[in-house]
Amino acid sequence: MLLLAWELVVRVLELRSPTIPPPSRVFLEVLKEALQLKGDAWITGIESLDGLLLALAAGFLLAGLDSTSKSVRRITEPVISFMQRMPMIALAPLIVTWIGFGSAPAVAVSFLLCLPPLAVNIKAGFDAAPNEILEILKIMDAPRLKSLWKVRVPSCLPFVLNGIKTTIPLALAGATVAEFVGSNAGLGYTIIYGASRTEASPLLAALTVLALIALISSGIVCFMERTLIPWARFSPAGATAIHIHDLHTFSIDRAD
Predict the structure, then answer these.
(1) Is this structure's pTM higher than 0.85?
(2) What whole-number distance in Å separates Cα of residue 2 and Cα of residue 47?
């Protein structure tokens, strides 16, 4: 409805300004520049994915250390809290100055934006592990790493996927802003190039592709949720359910 209203307003008022194109012109621009936009989308998408995956790995590492060591927690919690309150995206020009032009600064900015929410979600998932099972494993003298892998990691899966859905727009925004100031390729470069020429059509075409990437990526994560953790959608307790055979595995391992 919004797009239809936009189209009608531009047509009825006969607005000819290149800064206010109708949606139909934007759609034609997407078709016209499909090959160029496909290449730019691939670059920005890979940069965003790399930053998000690095943040996911770092989030697991921080949350794992945080859950097993109180001394580490006293260090990591203030750092993550500071990063949550710091407008990390404003560091993009400084990161470009430090790292140089290309994909590296885009990956770095995406990483910095994604790390705090992912670390917080993973830590919340680890903390959601059933205390009674953790106590049983403690009595059984199970290794900490095995408790982490068998109990805490499965319990945090819903939190991880929810965190990924939250950070997809952040990863894309980080890569795009870094491309504004430190790249000659990608959707961010296309957007800033269109803005410099005061032509809204290529700018809006790139934004449309960016929105499509975000929607498709979120859809993939939603599919993973339904496939990997279907129980979490129906019962809050289900998100932390651990099968009893895991305890049996511990006893077998100890026996060996």
Answers:
(1) no
(2) 31
Q: What is the pLDDT of residues 219-234, one digit of tens each?
A: 999 898 888 777 665 4
Which ranges in 69-186 belong to alpha helices (H)? Answer: 70-85, 92-99, 103-127, 131-139, 144-147, 153-182
How far is residue 25's CA from residue 57's CA, in Å, rounded to a whole number? 42
Q: How many CB atoms lie within 10 A of CB 130?
A: 14
d(CA 90, CA 94): 8
* Backbone torsions φ then ψ of 32, nearest 5 degrees: -65, -40
Q: How far is CA 151 from CA 11, 65, 137, 171, 244, in A?
A: 60, 15, 10, 29, 11
How many Cβ atoms from other residues are within 10 Å of residue 124's Cβ? 17
Rounded to whole angstroms, how far apart are CA atoms 123 and 63? 5
Domains and CATH numbers, the chain: 22-251 (1.10.3720.10)
